[in-house]
Amino acid sequence: MAMEDPDRKTEVVLLACGSFNPITNMHLRLFELAKDYFHETGKYKVIKGIISPVGDAYKKKGLISANHRVTMAKLATENSDWVEVDDWESCQNEWLETLKVLRYHHQKLLSADVTNSLQDAVPITKLGRKRKQEPNRHEPIKKKNQSPVVKSVPQVKLLCGSDMLESFGIPNLWKLEDITEIVEKHGLVCISRAGNNAQKFIYESDILWRHKNNIHLVEEWITNDISSTKIRRALRRGQSIRYLVPDVVRAYIEKNRLYSPESEDRNAGVVLAPLQKHASDPRSSQALNN
Ligand SMILES: Nc1ncnc2c1ncn2[C@@H]1O[C@H](COP(=O)(O)OP(=O)(O)OP(=O)(O)O)[C@@H](O)[C@H]1O
Ligand SMILES: NC(=O)c1ccc[n+]([C@@H]2O[C@H](COP(=O)(O)O)[C@@H](O)[C@H]2O)c1
Ligand SMILES: [Zn+2]
Q1: pTM for the predicted model, two decimal places
Q2: Interface predicted TM-score (ipTM)
Q3: Catalytic activity annotated for this protein (predicted)?
């Protein structure tokens, strides 16, 4: 095997935004697939995964309270040593554009980095993460003013499925400037199926095409059709969801009787927050594919 200096790799944090209503094994697989992909390039090191369940103000039909969705996501990731759940987005009173969630997490890493570099000048560790498992690494000894702080902050990339990528083309759902900033400043990791439309979708959009180096398409060879919609459907019908979601999540759903015909009717007839917000905004993404 080639000798590689792990410090040369670009550090990446993966951020997944969605309803997670409820979280499934498929959602957890997205992170593993993306991590394998980045590590196989030899250029990146994935240091963290973040699940950010959307807030109740998103108003999607059948969306149960964020409180339960966050709890289930935390239960699902309790055995993961790198994926965590962040409830900042779901605690906001209003629905937030995904770009704002990306910015928030990037900013948070920046401030962690600054705090770290102020606290200890030597040795320099990238990010401000404690490297517990590798105490004997030979970090270069530098004075803090010799190393620009910003340079070592990891990139926060949006992790999604191809359905989310393709939703960029739905009129009034996304602002063009948001899509541009996501692919320009952060980057996108999209888990897709062989022979699907993700590549064609990128080809057909000038903006996505221009930034295609920052859009990583990861092929899912061991396909898996689990979706939250199907989980909720099975629950309404009294069917088993065992082995489709982590067992702790299944137990939590049963104990709290979370999904029912009534819960599926929540927000029925209500306009989805982004559509409500952007409908009157001429900058919305009707012009993605030009
Ligand atoms: N089968 C899948 N393959 C790839 N990505 C997926 C798959 N299912 C969900 N995702 C991705 O997971 C993220 C969170 O999605 P979401 O919470 O909507 O889950 P979902 O299972 O699609 O739920 P629903 O059925 O309610 O739409 C999104 O980026 C979505 O694209
Ligand atoms: N303009 C935007 O930023 C925008 C529009 C639509 C959905 N989203 C996000 O995408 C995710 C979609 O989740 P669902 O597939 O469960 O609807 C949510 O996190 C939502 O906030 C963002
Ligand atoms: Zn979905």
Answers
A1: 0.88
A2: 0.96
A3: nicotinate beta-D-ribonucleotide + ATP + H(+) = deamido-NAD(+) + diphosphate; beta-nicotinamide D-ribonucleotide + ATP + H(+) = diphosphate + NAD(+)
